[in-house]
Input
Amino acid sequence: MLDYKLYYWDLPFRGNFLQLLLEDVGANYKKFDASDVYPARGLTIKNPGMAPPYLYDCQGKTWYAQMPAILMHLGRKYDYLPKRAETLTLALKTILDANDVLMEITNYNGSMMWQKSTWEEFRCGRLADWMQIFEKTGNDHGLKGGAGFLLGARISVADIAVAALFGTMVHSFPTLRGDLQEHAPNIAILCQRIEARPAILHFLDRQREESGRGYCGGQIEGSLRKMIEG
Output
């Protein structure tokens, strides 16, 4: 019997935040296309969300929506949450920060397409600042080179979120790898370490063979590629 059904598009973007953890813990799950739920069934499920990803817990017969909430739920279930109150709060903050970065890099979920001037301002300003925020968080908790994790000596949902955010970003847009290495060198190494975990590595190899450098799809990704690669 399946543990979970995950509903998302055939793209990494927000889906990888959940899939990296599900893969790392060896959960028995199956991924379904988001159109099986969204938008037609979106308001008919219990605990609806505005848009994918959605997770259905087959054993608990419960729906979960909104990526940060789903990741925190999985983190609690599989003991990927920090024990101390402060670091638990920081884990949630990290996931929410990552979600904000996704919103910002897509120019507020595609509300406008990027122009060269606004993209360069974002890349050199807020994106660089975000990278430094993650870097300082890790440094403050002992992350250095190939040792430690974002919030201490033990892996948590925060590390999964960092790898899903920046690991995916620099794979999809290799030009940004230099930005990450400049502004967040320890985070860059952390992403490589998380992506090298056996189950995650196997998943990413398969995903990247199938999807290439796909990111978020559609006009939004096209706008980003025009800015970064054009």
Q: What stands out?
A: The CA atoms of residues 102 and 108 lie 8 Å apart. The chain is about 55% helix and 5% strand. The longest helix spans residues 116-140. The two ends are 47 Å apart (CA to CA).
